[in-house]
Write a structure and sequence with these properties.
heterodimer, A: 99 residues, 4 helices, B: alpha/beta, elongated
Chain lengths: 99, 461
């Protein structure tokens, strides 16, 4: 195994533990926004799509495939953050704040 | 243009920190919205950094893709109804997984000299991404009722599913061992897509919370695998954070339904016996029907009322009327709370969002463990469109299919009013002991109708 892979695996495993600790604290009240918010975060694959499609030597097929990937990942990012914001805006402490 | 590699790494680290903070802020509804924007800012940093990397070009392609995706994202996020959030999340799961699989395919074409490490990451990311994409499409179709929400089953299904998955994995192993023909990865993607369809088809509507959570986890893991392909720490970490969230929610949902994840995915469907729907219990006890006027009197003179809503309330679009009824009662000095079962709805936390949208303050929304000790002090419990999650047989009858499932202890209240369309049994197809309890009265009719009548009657008291 290469040194890079070992570093990546270490990061991967630590991120798993960090993730569990973070998510455990999220109340069930907010589990739906949690899901749409994590949807937005998984849109981070847009970085990968740009790296692949934006490379100078990209072939037509690579270009086409990564174009679709960019569209899909952007839907995740934009839609995910916006719908989460819309939902979180509905959670209010008192009735009077919004009427 | 950023040319220093360490600056790039540091900027991506900023993104990771933003994502972690976003999830951290989600631990309270007070800061959650702010946290979401911190996460969004982190995403902008990541995208900006990537665009500024040396050697990135093809601007037309990138700008076009982002523009189309943004329009679709904005329109979707603005227009989606809160009852349709499960479908929306299913689509989001799917597109994330699909993007990961596409990147894997593209990378597969690029490799000249395949090394086992790189091919492994590519195969894993193509496999998981495709399963998540196809599974999510089917989940969406079921939730949107484009196909039947009922389990679709055929003999030998589990065997067929396993064979398809095994074939995909076997091809994956071959690819890692050196079979680097173009068609190999396409075949893996094809088989994984097929498996994704097959594994969601037999899962029924009531089990959707588990499936959506699982697909969420898969999407995150696919993104993480893409990080291994591209040697990108920010992808590895972000994907795993999502993977952890999805995994935890999957386990929570399965626990709330008293089933193992394996049982939900491969369990015996269609084998639950249909209830008789009889209004008469075996031992001669019968249900008692009541009128809106009687319930209104009960409610008005109560000190503490707990509402136990189920998905039936959302189907009837009655949540706004329920909130109005609660407001009326509060004006009369009644303490009103909502008891939310973890699987009340079609996805984790769904009922909370539906009630929040109807302007119910979140301080009134109580989760199961928090509200259960309060039922003995409640004068009236209003059960609206909920069934199995209130069935005391889950506590007392080891022969019941739902025995052991955590339930709302509504039967411990002084009196219970069940609003129900008819005596048909719930999802699990079993009779509810609660309806035969001498403390229980039934208010038959459409949930929205009944609540409107209750509002009128309470005003008249």
């Amino acid at each position: 195994m290469s040194a890079e892979l070992i570093t990546s695996l270490t990061v991967f495993v630590l991120a798993a533990f960090l993730g569990f600790e973070l998510i455990r604290r999220v109340p069930t009240l907010l589990h739906t926004p949690l899901m749409s918010g994590t949807n937005a975060i998984s849109g981070i694959v847009i970085v990968g799509a740009i790296l692949v499609g934006g490379a100078a030597g990209a072939t037509t097929l690579e270009g086409a495939v990564s174009f679709v990937a960019i569209v899909l990942a952007t839907i995740n990012v934009v839609g995910g953050f916006l719908v989460t914001d819309r939902m979180l805006g509905m959670f209010r402490r008192r009735r009077s704040e919004n009427e | 243009m950023i040319s220093s590699p360490s600056v790039v790494v540091l900027l991506y680290l900023v993104t990771i920190v933003c994502f972690v903070l976003a999830l951290r802020f989600l631990s309270s509804p007070k800061h959650a919205r702010k946290g979401n924007w911190v996460g969004g800012a982190g995403m902008l940093v990541a995208i900006g950094t990537t665009l500024a990397l040396e050697g990135i070009g093809n601007w037309g392609l990138i700008a076009g893709g982002i523009a189309i995706g943004s329009v679709a994202g904005v329109v979707g996020a603005r227009t989606v109804r809160m009852t349709a959030m499960p479908q929306m999340v299913a689509i989001f799961n799917g597109v994330g997984g699909g993007a990961a699989a596409l990147i894997a395919l593209s990378e597969w074409h690029e490799i000249v000299e395949p090394a086992a490490e790189e091919t492994t990451s590519i195969v894993v990311s193509a496999l998981i991404g495709s399963i998540s994409f196809a599974g999510s499409v089917v989940a969406f179709a079921k939730l949107q009722e484009l196909v039947s929400g009922r389990p679709i089953v055929f003999p030998g299904q589990n065997v067929v599913n396993m064979l398809v998955l095994l074939a995909a994995v076997a091809l994956g192993v071959a690819a890692i061992a050196g079979a680097h023909e173009q068609w190999v990865l396409w075949a893996i993607v094809g088989l994984a897509l097929l498996f994704g369809v097959l594994f969601v088809l037999p899962i029924g509507g009531a089990d959707m919370p588990v499936v959506i959570s699982l697909l969420n986890a898969l999407t995150g893991l696919a993104a993480s695998a893409t990080g291994f392909v591209l040697d990108s720490t920010v992808l590895i970490v972000s994907g795993m954070l999502v993977g952890a969230a999805g995994t935890l929610l999957t386990l929570l949902m399965a626990k709330a339904m008293n089933r193992s994840v394996a049982n939900v995915l491969f369990g015996a469907f269609g084998q639950v016996q249909a209830g008789t729907g009889a209004a008469r219990g075996d031992d001669g006890r019968t249900v008692r029907a009541t009128s809106p006027e009687d319930v209104a009197v009960q409610l008005t003179f109560a000190r503490k009322v707990i509402v136990a809503p189920g998905y039936g309330m959302a189907v009837a679009q009655a949540q706004h009327d329920v909130r109005q009824l609660a407001d009326l009662l509060e004006e009369k000095g009644v303490d009103v709370k909502y008891a939310i079962h973890p699987v009340a709805g079609r996805m984790p936390g769904h009922m909370n969002v539906l009630l929040a949208e109807a302007n119910v303050p979140y301080t009134q929304l109580a989760e199961m463990d928090q509200i259960n000790p309060e039922f003995p002090q409640a004068d009236v419990v209003l059960v609206i469109g909920a069934n199995d999650v209130t069935n005391p047989a889950a506590r007392s009858d080891p022969a019941s299919p739902i025995y052991g499932m955590p339930i709302l202890d509504v039967d411990k209240a002084a009196s219970i009013v069940v609003m129900k369309r008819s005596m048909n049994p719930g999802f699990a197809g079993i009779d509810n002991e609660l309806y035969l309890d001498p403390k229980t009265t039934m208010l038959f009719g459409d949930a929205k109708d009944s609540v409107l009548k209750l509002i009128a009657a309470v005003k008249a008291v």
